[in-house]
Automatic annotation (TrEMBL), chains A, B:
Similarity comment text for this entry: Belongs to the glycosyl hydrolase 65 family.
UniProt keyword Hydrolase, yes or no: yes
GO BP terms, alphabetized: carbohydrate metabolic process
Domain named Glycoside hydrolase family 65 central catalytic: residues: 325-678
Source organism of this protein record: Microbacterium ginsengiterrae
EC number: 2.4.1.64
Name this polypeptide is given: Alpha,alpha-trehalose phosphorylase
GO molecular function term, any single one: hydrolase activity, hydrolyzing O-glycosyl compounds
Region described as Disordered: spans on this chain: 751-784
Enzyme class, UniProt record, top EC level: transferase
Residues the record marks as active site: 486
Pfam families: Glyco_hydro_65C, Glyco_hydro_65m, Glyco_hydro_65N
Domain Glycoside hydrolase family 65 C-terminal: 687-748
Keywords, alphabetical: Glycosidase, Glycosyltransferase, Hydrolase, Transferase
């Protein structure tokens, strides 16, 4: 692990150099979003840049899906996120010399993301090629309180000499983006995705209204400006793909030109809409009326409220303290105001994975939101619920009952192009059902369960019944499916899938029994509920008695073992160097599968099985997926491999800050970032969700002296403060909360409760990973 | 089964109506080819037409292969057969009224394919819209003796009135063909695939020289004309994409205009070549010098020689007599002069499957050629040998030893776009090895074995050793592969694959021991030979002892059975209505797999196993592949289900003549046509190839009174004449031939030998097929 890229600080992420080749990474790290609107951290002036990025959640273009050999049930229409009109751009000229970080002399340049303020600051001092010096500060906010609004305060101060300052504030559509598709049909549609409908410029305000060519969306962006400067002139112009407000002023030394740019984005699922334009303009008008200070105050208020519960305290490793807050900030940003839209794998920080959402949102991100921002979790589940018509259609196409949710999608329609790792990965349906179950347990949101959650549970339960089959002995099997591990596919009785399906069936039966009045609407009778219960009970969970472990899927332990010793360090990632054919037929895991099952379906395994399973799969897991380290850490912690868990945590925590996978420029790994919290809370905190309440088993890894974290439980905050020897529980609710501390039942009421940490078991030796694939000790070279 | 489309005759296939909507089918049926050059049976005048088709074996265009989600090892370049310059076209005008079957009055129109002459005849009498009547005859030949040459004799006779006759004979490049690709990159390359290099017109001769845009081929076509008519005038012109010779004459009633058009085609793997043009012109010059009658005589000579051995006599069903000769004619045509080029799945009769060759050439077609046209078989194996460099590259890409031959290709490079049904179908390598083994056994061609065959056997044996693995008990397994059945994929220990690999390993070891001097060149030592033998001996062949049958692959009999009763007749073909996901995980077969293994590896099964296996898989096989009925028939015959075998034979025999699959317009099903011979010879004749020679077990199905067929054995002809009670064997060789008649050893010397048919066993009930998928009794409604 190399030195940290960013300055280590508990509440900020900052950097004081700027190089064109690093911008793409930093733009993702400095991405601001509210879940509805996302701006990558592009420099104000737009150039140089890594990847321009301004996204509205739900704005995408459709395109044909190409297949060398087509077949029944293959999705025909793909979806790709596109840039909306870019409202970030503020260019500056000093005596008509355009500012650029690569010309003139940049005597300082600092960028700082503030995790409490929710703002991105930038300050620099620049001397133009002709020797004129200015001091610039900009502050950018993507509002968490007003979902359509982003704003920038941009201030230029003349230093030493009087100068003519020109600031050009722009909206820009159809900017060039990196070529991603080698299919020219797709490339055509995505290169200039926006068609101009109308543009408008009045005073300091301009609006661009565009439409997408195939997906039928109307997309509007408005900007307006407050200007404070001596004797400035201002003019606004608009043309088809751009609008600009030009502000000129002459500044004496010490004088400033200050501009606040308000940008409002909105869209609508209709090609030509007057209302979408009106909404963007109204949002800007309102924001401007309330003003910049109010925007900042609202932002701080939302985040203060968030951190009050969600904050995690780490003592013993400053980089981890920073990383966990950064991770939580980005997880929150990705979903806070998504409101009936999907949360993409990269959030709104990049166009990676085409802006699609995957199972890891429900499996990795939603548990964090449920525990820290339950309103956002509710909204995300409502989005899945809204896609039920598509999921029912997909199930029908596959000749299955109920609903089959999309493996990858923006709007709910299946958009995956390789069925063995998508259509066959039916576990996503149980992952969604589990997210419903955990949300309802954590919040007590009975209204949600009755009106929305139950329908998801029912339709997914129906899917499982139709997908599996009873054998002659009455045992229930689910054949030919793909579990979480993408180096395996199309296997029978995947343990993760079967356990999650079992959980899904039981959750559906329980919820149905709680809401008999809704069952009638959904056509659920007592027989069907009994069938779910019986199917769950009959579920086959393969076990290899010889090895004393669970095979990932039936027969898995009989497969040939991957030849790790013959695999060079330069042959990772394996899928870049070996065909699926060979990966699938051998024992080698891209990511935790059975190990993840031991977290999500923790009650299905004995402690001894967890130890044996973990050791077995550690030796086979190459962690070529960013989704792997966190689940490995959670179970490592459970089986008392605390140092190993800590090494995995360090790896996950630095994934984006240090660009550990080399692809952060495509956007943040939101699910991996969520994993940072999960390792702390479910790993070192030992939190498990059961029908009878929460259980904790907090143990610190040797390098940490203290951990503190908070969980929302039924709308109140449960906070744990963990030291090596004891844990203190505090709960903000009026009703006392019953929970388990290890095997000890405790009740946390108005007074805090402190409980001792039991002695650890006799340590076992550290499990071995495949050659070249042991986790690095992430913080070693830069410990505080 | 409906009435036969074509007139039933033992040696011709003819039809006396002509309708635009039927042309596409008839063009394939009337396709003429010599394996190097193929002309679909388009009408002389080119319009109307179903699909224009003029193919040179090896002339194709390359194009990008599109993938919605790309991965390691996916082929990047696809290949598609394209039309070369069309030399078929002869348009006629009567008093300047263009002849067209859809205008004027066609009082007769007959087309006749003659299977002994190797010619396509056409005659019609037409009255123009202005009342002028002509009688036209055309005869078309694609020369089996001169691979570059096709020719047409076109004769027009004035009836009743004097008329001005204009005949326009053309060469035409880049004719419109049906849109096949929805990827516009591919479509672009294939829409106008030929770029003009040069054109030339002198006297009655014209030449077009084109090149392909990406694949880098130079393609030349020359035409020249002999004309016989009173006072005719002739002019020839050429432009970029066409050339035409216009011949005008005034004919009194009873006078004729007779034109013989000679067309020479050639190509070369070089973009601009003078020699390719010279070769096309020289071929025409030579053909013209020898003349039309000589061309016809040569054609008849080649075919007489072919039929002398190959002819099959059927008594009892005239439609079958015609069909088997038609099938043999087309199989012969597809490969006769292919000479170091692949033989496409459709021969040169259509652009279906993009002109690719597949495993079924070696598995289905080559055995027929080996027994009837061994020189063509040798050439085809030499082609595979020539692709060894590509096959070694592919093996290396897959991290395997030896050679992995292309699943689908024109020039030897892998061009398949769906790996579970291509890359994973490694059995093609053993199918090729088996074809080598059978060719050498049948011909005694030791020089071929030493110089070429051994290298194929060695490289494929190496592949198997690296592809499989030994388990702890030393048993050899081949995991994660796909057998012949395309409704299953990625399974362990596919019995067909393992048995064929075993045969491959043994054949390699035997051949290597026979040619120690070549082993040194190939780096084969005694240890490696021993390893092949040991690996073959250790090969795992799964067997389900409970059911007493072989599972298609390990665990197959434990899979869920397809719900045939719930599957409607309109849901076939299943792959058009169900996802691979569901087909793969259930017991349902598209085509014979284990049943095919019982033919190709017949010594690995006891008679009792054959009966039980056949009955088991009959109930699961839906025959959605044209490759299925013939192997089912062969084993049906072996297990004494002669009526069932006959029904399958009827189905195969009429596949193209009756357009039974509705896709004959894309080209003939050459492997299925080969299956007609295979059912007669290996099914009713019971022929099996063993290390100790041939075995026969001839039994007639109840509807036939006699069968006769011939086999090339070591360059000589063995003919069988089978009646219900006995079989007479005749052999043309000087050395007596030892063989088995049932279990009776007989020796056929200069005198014929007649042997009795043993009494049949007690009949078992007819096996059941899935609902809606029993074979139709093909000849029922049209028995003679």
């Amino acid at each position: 692990m190399t030195k940290a890229r960013f300055d280590v600080d508990p509440w900020t992420v900052s950097i004081s150099d700027v190089r064109p080749e690093s911008l793409a990474h930093e733009e993702s790290v400095f991405g601001l979003s509210n879940g509805h609107l996302g701006w990558r951290g592009n420099l104000d002036e737009g150039d140089p840049r890594g990847v321009a990025g301004s996204y509205l959640n739900g704005v995408f273009e459709e395109h044909p899906m190409p297949y060398a050999e087509d077949a029944y049930g293959y999705p025909e229409v793909g979806q790709s996120v596109i840039n909306v009109q870019n409202g970030q751009i503020i260019r500056m000229l000093v005596d008509d010399e355009p500012f650029d970080i690569e010309t003139g002399e940049l005597s300082s340049h600092d960028r700082r993301l503030d995790l409490r303020d929710g703002t991105l600051h930038r300050s620099f001092e620049w001397t133009s090629p002709t020797g004129r010096r200015v001091r610039v500060e900009s502050t950018r906010v993507v509002s968490l309180s007003r979902r359509a609004i982003a704003a920038v305060r941009y201030s230029v101060e003349a230093v030493e000499h009087a100068v003519d300052i020109t600031v050009i504030s722009e909206l820009l559509a159809n900017e060039p983006v990196p070529v991603e598709h080698d299919d020219p049909r797709v490339q055509d549609l995505l290169t200039r995705p926006l068609v101009t409908v109308e543009t408008d410029a009045v005073g300091s305000r301009a609006t661009l209204l565009h439409r997408t060519r195939r997906s039928g969306l109307a997309v509007a962006t408005t900007m307006d400006h407050e200007v404070d400067a001596p004797g400035y002139r201002l003019v606004t112009e608009a043309e088809d793909d751009g609008a600009r407000t030009t502000i000129r002023a002459r500044l004496d030394p010490g004088e400033r030109l200050v501009i606040v740019k308000y940008v409002g984005h909105d869209f609508e699922e209709s090609r030509a809409s007057a209302t979408v334009r009106a909404r963007a303009e109204t949002a800007v008008t309102a924001a401007m009326a309330d003003g910049w200070d109010r925007l900042l105050a609202e932002q701080r208020e939302v985040l203060d409220d968030y951190w009050r519960c969600a904050d995690v305290i780490v003592e013993g490793e400053p980089r981890l303290q920073q990383a966990v807050r950064y991770a939580l900030f980005q997880v929150f940003q990705s979903a806070a105001r998504a409101e009936l839209r999907s949360v993409p794998g990269k959030g709104l920080t990049g166009a990676g994975y085409e802006g699609h959402t995957f199972w890891d949102f429900e499996a990795f991100v939603l548990p964090v939101l449920t525990s820290t921002a339950p309103d956002a979790a509710r909204q995300a589940l409502l989005w899945r619920h809204s896609t039920l018509p598509h999921a029912r259609d997909r199930a029908a196409q596959l000749h299955l009952a109920g609903a089959a949710f999309a493996w990858r999608t923006i709007d709910g329609r299946e958009s995956s192009g390789y069925w063995p790792a998508s259509t066959a990965a039916f576990h996503i349906n149980a992952d969604i059902a589990a997210a419903v179950l955990h949300y309802v347990r954590a919040t007590g949101d009975v209204e949600f369960e009755r009106e929305y959650g139950l329908e998801i549970l029912v339709e997914t339960a129906r899917l499982w019944v139709s997908l599996g089959r009873r054998d002659a002995d009455g045992t229930f099997h689910i054949d030919g499916v793909t579990g979480p591990d993408e180096y395996s596919a199309i296997a029978n009785d995947n343990v993760f899938t079967n356990l999650m399906a079992q959980l899904n069936l039981r959750a559906a039966a329980d919820a149905a029994r709680r809401h008999p009045e809704r069952c009638e609407d959904l056509g659920v009778g007592a027989d069907e509920i009994d069938e779910w219960t019986a199917t769950a009970a009959a579920m086959h969970i393969p076990f290899d008695a010889d090895l004393g472990i669970h095979p990932q899927s039936a027969g898995y332990t009989q497969l040939e073992r991957w030849d790790f010793d013959a695999t060079g360090i330069d042959q990772y990632l394996l899928h870049d160097h070996f065909p699926y054919f060979d990966l699938y037929r051998k024992q080698v895991l891209k990511q935790a599968d059975l190990v993840l099952a031991m977290h999500f379906a923790h009650e299905a395994f004995t402690p001894e099985q967890k130890i044996r399973n973990f050791e077995y799969y550690e030796a086979l897991t190459v962690r070529d997926s960013s989704l792997s380290a966190a689940p490995q850490a959670v179970i490592a912690a459970e089986v008392h491999q605390l140092e190993l868990a800590y090494d995995y945590l360090a790896e996950v925590a630095t994934i984006d800050l240090d660009d550990a996978h080399g692809n952060t420029h495509e956007g943040l790994h939101v699910a991996a970032l969520a994993g940072v919290w999960t390792v702390i809370v479910a790993g070192f905190g030992g939190m498990r969700d059961t029908a009878d309440g929460l259980r904790f088993a907090p143990r610190l890894p040797p390098r940490l002296t203290r951990l503190g974290f908070g969980i929302r439980v039924h709308g109140e905050t449960l906070r744990l403060d963990v030291s090596a020897s004891e844990t203190t529980y505090r709960y903000s609710g009026d009703e006392p909360l019953k929970l388990l501390h290890f095997d000890q039942a405790i009740t946390v009421g108005t007074d805090e409760v402190t409980a001792q940490t039991p002695s650890p078991p006799v340590p076992r030796s550290r499990p071995q990973q495949p050659r070249h694939r042991a986790p690095r000790s992430a913080f070693e070279t830069d410990g505080s």
